[in-house]
Amino acid sequence: MASSEVDQKFLGKAAKAVEHENPLLASVLYKILGLSINLSHQLVKAKKQRRPDGTPTSAQLDLSFHIIWLSREGLVLLEQYVVPMVGAYTELKVLAYKLRASFYHIFVLFHNTPPVSSMGVNTPDPQNTPQSRLDKGKGVAADDGGAPSSAKPSRNFEGGPVGPPPGFGPESPSAFLLKPGDYLPIAHQYFKEAAELADKILWGSHSLRLSVKTEYAAFLYECVHDFEGSRKLAKETVAQVYDATEGIDNDMFNDACELVTVLGKMMKRGLNSSNKNPASSTGSQPPARTEQGEPSAPPGMI
């Protein structure tokens, strides 16, 4: 995500590299770096506080608001000051495109309408609000709670309750921070652009390229719900790493190894849910863990 350690390393390196020739760009990159570090802590807290029933507590609401606000501010800085200035920089251009997709990824997780994740603050369903629980043709209730008056014939209402007109229904609690809407298509488009740019500019084992592909695969799985597409992308990325012949330094090698390990797990994510474990029927061993279980959170994933 916008909070991954690999992205933070490249943010710091890029800011330091352009300090003399472009102080404004460097200062904005440092601000985004600080915001990213803060955001990473908030995302870890959000995952730990997630409840199985999906009902948010007041603390979770506050945390979601903070995450949305940080992501919104990071996106404003990125789009206004970084993206227009990165044409002459190779790694920084890929990083900027990746961060843009990452911020929209967070909007999809925490603020999307309709919701695609249990992480965020969902908009109330108009059909389930107290105001919408209307009488469905049982007659007009008398003022004293008794039977309908004979002077006032009952009237049957067919079709059930009618929802409010557009623009007058219940809004997402976080609507004051960010305009409600479906951010999934634009987030998907930005991930495609970042992945295509990374493929064009960076070699197969470059850790920034792997960061792009890791979060894109996570986005496909958790938000688009394209499980097979996510596994395919992870598998292809790992194969490209082994085919790469370019040399890398020790730090990038360590990051690449970590991301390849994550991608290796993502290649198999969800597969054991479709296959029954024969030992589970005998009671001799516990059943295999399914995709409904609580997974660990590798880089780029909540």
From TrEMBL:
Chain spans, region Disordered: 119-171, 271-302
Transmembrane annotation, as ranges: none
Polar residues composition-biased segments: 119-132, 271-287
InterPro entries, alphabetized: 14-3-3_dom_sf
Domain of life: Eukaryota
Protein name (record): 14-3-3-like protein
Organism taxonomic ancestry: Eukaryota, Fungi, Dikarya, Ascomycota, Pezizomycotina
